[in-house]
From TrEMBL:
InterPro entries with a match to the protein in the record: DUF4197
Signal peptide: 1-20
Keyword Signal: yes
UniProt entry keywords in alphabetical sequence: Signal
Protein name: DUF4197 domain-containing protein
Alphabetical list of Pfam families matching this protein: DUF4197
KW Signal (keyword) present: yes
Species classification: Bacteria, Pseudomonadati, Nitrospirota, Nitrospiria, Nitrospirales
Species annotation: Candidatus Sulfobium mesophilum
Amino acid sequence: MIRLVGCIFGLIIATTPAGATMLDDVMKGIGGASKGSVRGSSDLDDSTVASGLKEALAVGTENAVKNVSRTDGYFGNQVIKVLMPEKIRKVADVLKTVGYQKQVDDFVLSMNRAAEKAAPKAATIFGDAIREMTFEDVRGILGGGDTAATDFFKRKTQNKLYEAFKPVVSSSMNDVGVTKSYKEMMGKYESVPFASKESVDLDHYVTSRALDGLFYMVGQEEKNIRTDPMARTTDLLKTVFGK
């Protein structure tokens, strides 16, 4: 168990030169550590290190959820912004050329507002996944890369998140006018001579893109906590990950 916890610790800190030095110190100390501690010269025991790992995950997911839940959390981030569905992108291009740029822009904005409104649902689901984390889950993380924890969250939470997000997205899209904007946009498009009819499942599309963006942000937070001491915002994180 001591070796396993040492590996957990190393997974998170070994991505920086300073972290690599600390990892070397930890691994050297494991051989002489008394039972229940990570290394003989440290006050850190297995429970503290495990708690630190879970807190790192909690901080990362909390930051990600907060970032995407705020106004413009999706719309203002060009990496995760919910764009026009590819299936009706041609529709938007045609409408822009015939004077309906505003309607297209309003439609895109309203999709992002729906995603932002649904995002807070992720907080509880991520928290449950962290609390239920087993050593088998940890071993899976150890075998992964810089976003191994994010991949763990995808496996454990994506279906639950989809089920939680979709009703909120659907309701939000009605509230913020997505459905209305979509119908107006498609109505104008279909009035254009020779335009073909197109359709898309907006609830599914916005929910899926919202989750893609959320997991991207979780991955960024994971990388941040691994490499940036300033991202360790609690005493426990500083104790476990500080030199």
